[in-house]
Structures are given as structure tokens and as C-alpha cells.
Amino acid sequence: MFSQLFINGLIAGAIYALVASGFSLIYSTCKFIHFAHGAVVAVTAYILYLFFSLLGLNFWLAVILTIIFAGFFGWLINKILYKKLRKRKASNVILLIASVGLLILLESLILLFFGADVKTIGFIKIAKGLEFLGAIITPLQIVIIISSFVLLFLLFFFTKKSKIGKAMRAVADNRDVAEIVGISAEKMFSWSFIIGSAIAGIAGILVGLEQNLEPTMGTNLIIKGFTGAIIGGIGSVPGAILGSFLLGFSENFGIWFLPSGYKDAIAFIILFVFLLARPQGILGRKK
Amino acid sequence: MNKTAKTILWVVIIVIVIGAIWYGVTRKPTTEEVIKIGAILPLTGKNASYGERTQRGIELALEEVNKEEKIIEVIYEDSRGDLKEAASAAQKLINIDKVQVLFSQLSGVSQAIAPIAQENKIILFGFTSTPGFTKQGDYIFSNRGDATNIGKRLGEFAIEKEYKKAAIVYLNNETHKGIEEGFREIFENNDRSVVISELHEKTETDFRTILTKIKAAQPQVILFSSRDKYVAMMLVQARELGLDQQVLSVQGIDSKSFLEIAQHTAEGIIYAQTIVYEDITNPELQETLKEHQNRYGEPMSLYAANSYDVVKLLAKIVKTGIKTSPAIKIALLETRDFPGISGDITFDETGNVHKENKLFTVKNGQFVPYEE
């Protein structure tokens, strides 16, 4: 049973990590909590549903279009909402409230356009999973786990090696100094939204295939993604991914011993323990 | 603007506001012939799909009963599944819209509205099967029966099939707890055991570890007592994990999205509910079933049938000239065998119904009565 629980934790952690990594990337550059990230995941899942199930496009073409759309959508959110607010010198609290408002707005729009019923993308046929060291896992779940690991490495190299990544870190570290040496902070904010939201697009596609689509799916996802990001160290992308896996494991091993109703309680107890004992998270730096 | 002008402006504004409030409060209802029903349904949020189904039933019934002249008006309020929201909607409907009857859906919301309706002597039809719901007052009605009976019916079936060990996963609310208790009572009183019973919350989409625990307990039959989408997700994940036991389930899973999520894993699931498609010989009701299928592209669900039946029953009472809540209450209690799609309606003294739960299954992607 241990291996099955391990796999269950890994699947749950990978899903949280997919949400947390984009969220944490945006936080690390822009320094505010973009709760609407959850809704971006939900919107992209519905966009895939629109392209693939309703318009009947080729699945892979639909996937690529969805990821491009997600990046564009993130850019648009930053441009028409957050940028305007920043221009008016809005505080981070106002940006946070705006992001919660946006989360609710986007969920309502999904409800309006697609209805309240659970939607299925229907690309994958349901079948018994593959046996793997005594545990059972479906091919899609393997893809989800691999994707989150690949993302972990890509994001790590992106922030450490690429020009935009370095500039983003510079803005994250000290915006004024970065601007003095000629890095446009606004440009970096845009880039962090484009990349962060494109990752949300990947998350939306994989979660949509695994768990089906619901207008309110974004809220649930961002709550767990946010918790994972806090545990791992908000502002540290590798930390967010690590924290998400820790969360996935503790929930699934926890409810093996406790009644399953305690699942969310376990998640929040861990959150509190970290907030009290190590507020900077696993990989976060102490200020 | 100088100070005097400002003061005058304020006085004018206050007079207008007071005048408007006075007009609004004292205004006589213009359409006295029409009886108003307030329907507090989850129209947005997590449970919106259930509210939608109930609304379809109401709309179909309204079209029929208002064909010649308008006798019933339904005012919808969105509860979003939220208790506070629902309670203030109930106050508004009773005090401002002056409704004579309230409808509510979801166990928690219905429980929250019941005392308000009872206090104001307004009839409340709860589309819920929460055990003991109608015992809260003489104005509280339900036409869905008591959830415990669904559990008992499934328990009897499991005993007939000679299953010795059962596992249960149920949604954490009063109704599904009632079903769990009903099943457990019958099953365990017959020298069998429920080897594991786990609850799940409404935010859950990942049932893998619950199912892993069930797998380790090795039951012969599994009861998923929850709402359609959760049952479908549990079914899919159970089959993916290689659990191949017979699965039992409950009323309300008869939806298009259940079949879409569960795909072929839905085949052979057995569930208990009170709808009576196959017994309906009444041509008018058959027409309604057809109309629902044409308009919404799916067979009429239990939720739609429940609300449809209640509106039709109320219309019959209103047509006799009864228009106030206390009089309607008496007429409801006197009702005997009113033909409905979700079974004939006769209320007991608490305002609940005792309909027979029948077994259904899914065969070739269709919900059909279960046969041995």
C-alpha cells in the first residue's frame, strides 16, 4: 500500500505544483498575490474544451493554441488591470483585492458562457491504470508528474541562465536599482505574467483532462497551490514546487491514518506550522 | 454651491428617498389573482447544476399551468449554496415579494430557511431528503421522502445479493449521512459488516487515497452516496485503481454530466430513487417527459421531476380558489395520490411523503429500471 499512497501523493503534489509554480513566478517578480491565477487555470481548461470538444480541432493543435492563449490572457490581465492600478500607485492590498475580484468575475463568466454542468474533454479513454511497483497509475498521471518535474528544471534554468530570467530576478531583488541599469520593470512584469500564465495553461490542460471542468475549479486549485507556495517559500519557484509535493504527500499519507474528512485540516495545519516556525518557507530567504 | 443650496438639496434628496420607500412599502400588489412562489436555488457557484435542473422542472410546469391564464408566478433567488445568502433571500421573498410558498434546494440551505418559513407561516417545500426535515414545523414540506429509506433499500438489495462486506463513501451532509445510517442499520442488523465508511467534502476531486483504503479493506460491494459528479469521479478513479466490485449509489445521479464523466464505467451501477418513468401511463406526464428531452437534450432528472410535480400540485390547489399559505397547507395535507413523475404524492402528518424507492441502473448509456 505504501507505493500506492506514494503515487497518490505524487499525483496530488504534481497538480498543486503546476498551479503553484506559475503563481509563485508572478509573485516573485511583481510582489503581490495574484489569486486570479486559479481562474486563469480554469479559463484555459475551458478554452481547451472549446477548441477540442466544441470546435473539433486536432487535439495537439488545440493544446498549443491553448497554451499560447493562456500566455496572451495573462499579458492582457496585467495590461488592462494591474498595470493601470500600479500607475495609480495602488498598494499591494488593493492589487490583492482586485485579483480576488477578477477571480470571481472570471468564474462567473465561465458559468455564463459554458453553464454550470461539469464538462469533460473526453480525449482520454478511462481504463485500468498501469501496474508499477505494486501501485496503479494511469498514463495521464505519469504525464502530469513528468510535466511538473520538467517545469521545475526549465524554470530553474530560465531564471538562472536566460537574459529575461536574470532581468526578472533583478527586478524582484531591487526594482529601483534594476531600472537604473536599464531594465524596464513594467516589461519584466509583463513577461512574468506571460510565462506564469502559460504555465497555468499547461496546468489547466492537464488538470482539465484529469479532473474534468467546473466553473469553480480555479478557487480550489489556487487555495492548494497558494498553500504549497507558502510552505515552499513564496517567491521561490523551486520552493513552491517542493512545497506542493510536501503538501500532496502529507495529505495523502495523513488520511491513510485519519478519516478522509481531515484532508483539508492536514493541509492547513502544515500551513500554520510553517507560518509559525519557518515563515519564509522551505527555500525562502529570511528578510 | 453655497451652504443654503446644499441644505436644500439634501432636504430634497431625503424627501424623495422617504417618499420612494413609503411608496414601495404601501404599494398594493397589482396582480392579486396570481399567487407568488419564491424559489431559493443554487443558480451560481458549485451547486449551480442542481439548481438548474430544479429550475427546468419549475419552468416546464409553469408553462403548462399558466397556459390559459397566469395563476402562478415564480420569483427566483440565487442562494449560491450559501446559508446566509439563502436566509436573507427568504426574508426578502416573504416580506417584500409577499410569496405564499417557498422552494429551497440543498440540505444545508433548506435547514437554514425552515425556521424562517415556519415563523412567518409560509409553506416551505424543501427539495431535500434530509432526515427529519419536515418535522421542524407544520409549514415544512418535502416531496422527496426521507434519505434513510434510500439507504435501507440499498441495504436490502445488498443482503439479497448475499454481500457480506460493504464499503461506503458519503458526502459530508445530513442527507448522505442519513443514507449511510440507513444502509448500515439494515446491513449490520443482518450479521454483515460495513468494513470501512469514509466521508468526503464538497471541494474534493481526488478520491484516490480513500479508494486505496477501500481496496485494502476488500469489500464485496461499495456504496457511493454523493452527488452525481462526485459519484462519477469516484467511479472513474475506482476503476482506474482496479477496484471492480459492484457499485451502489443514490438518487440524483441521473444526469447527462454523470454519464459524460463516468463514460463506460457508469454501466451496471445500481442506484435507488423514486422516479417512475416506466409506470407513467398518464399521457400528460408522458408529454412532459418528451418535452424535457427535446428542450434540454437529456431525460428528466429526479430534481426536475420533484419541482415539476410540486408546481403542478400547487396549481391544482390554487385553481380551486385557495390563495393563502395556511389554506394551501390544509389542502396539501388533504392531498391523496396526486399523480407525479417522481411518484404519487400523499403527505403524512409531518408533511413528508413515503414513496417507494426503486432500483435503477445504467445500460448502454441510458438510465433504466434495474431488472435481475
Describe, in short, the structure shown.
Chain A is mainly alpha-helical and 287 residues long. Chain A has helices at residues 2-30, 37-54, 59-87, 92-114, 139-161, 163-173, 175-180, 185-211, 217-232, 237-257, 263-277, and strands spanning 130-132, 135-137. Chain A has a single domain (2-277), classed as ABC transporter involved in vitamin B12 uptake, BtuC (Orthogonal Bundle), CATH 1.10.3470.
List descriptors.
heterodimer, A: 287 residues, mainly alpha, ABC transporter involved in vitamin B12 uptake, BtuC, 11 helices, 76% helix, B: 372 residues, alpha/beta, Rossmann fold, 2 domains, 12 strands
- Characterize the main sheet of chain B: 7 strands, mixed
**Helix share bin of chain A:** over 70%
Structural classification of chain B:
alpha/beta
Q: What is the number of independent domains of chain A?
A: 1
- Binned, the helix content of chain B reads 40-55%
Indicate the overall shape of chain B: globular
Q: End-to-end distance of chain B, in Å?
A: 86 Å
The rounded Rg of chain A comes to 19 Å
The count of helical stretches of chain A stands at 11
Order of helices and strands of chain A: HHHHEEHHHHHHH
CATH class membership of chain A: Mainly Alpha
Mean pLDDT, all residues of chain B: 89
The beta-strand count of chain B equals 12
Helix and strand succession of chain B? HEHEHEHEEHEHEHEHEHEHHHEE
Strand content of chain B: 15-25%
Main-sheet strand order of chain A equals 1-2
